[in-house]
């Protein structure tokens, strides 16, 4: 399954394009722009599993830095500051990674 099976390709392109500048990434705005906020809980979980590149059941910090590439292969990497901010917002239990329920909560809070 690819991201465009779940989200509109044009929405992805606009959302990725809105955050091309370093340190401009805002996960709340991004999740809204990409259409993730409007998706069912099941679809949000499917997106999580696409972003979980190593299939560990978690999005670790190194994967989080490449989150935009999960939506569009030519997107930029997040800066260390953006990655740390996103991890702090999503990692509710403090284990240094984001699980599927934490990711779902992160999207719902957007």
TrEMBL record:
Molecular function as annotated in GO: calcium ion binding
Protein name, entry field: Parvalbumin
One GO cellular component term noted in the UniProt record for this chain: cytoplasm
InterPro entries: EF-hand-dom_pair (IPR011992), EF_Hand_1_Ca_BS (IPR018247), EF_hand_dom (IPR002048), Parvalbumin (IPR008080)
Claim: Iron is one of the keywords in the record: no
SMART domains for this protein: EFh (SM00054)
List of residues binding Ca(2+) 2: 91, 93, 95, 97, 102
Domain EF-hand positions: 39-74, 78-110
Protein task: In muscle, parvalbumin is thought to be involved in relaxation after contraction. It binds two calcium ions.
Family: Belongs to the parvalbumin family.
Matching Gene3D superfamilies: EF-hand (1.10.238.10)
UniProt: Ca(2+) 1 binding residues: 52, 54, 56, 58, 63
Keywords on record: Calcium, Metal-binding, Repeat
Pfam families for the chain: EF-hand_7
PANTHER family: PARVALBUMIN ALPHA
């Amino acid at each position: 399954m690819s991201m465009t099976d779940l989200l509109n390709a044009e929405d992805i392109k606009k959302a990725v394009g809105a955050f091309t500048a370093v340190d401009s990434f805002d996960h709340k705005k991004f999740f809204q722009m990409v259409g993730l906020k409007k998706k069912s809980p099941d679809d949000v979980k499917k997106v999580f599993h696409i972003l979980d590149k190593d299939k560990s059941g978690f999005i670790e910090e190194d994967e989080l830095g490449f989150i935009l590439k999960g939506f569009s292969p030519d997107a930029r990497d997040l800066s260390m500051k953006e990655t740390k901010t996103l991890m702090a917002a999503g990692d509710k239990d403090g284990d240094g990674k984001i699980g599927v329920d934490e990711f779902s909560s992160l999207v719902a809070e957007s």
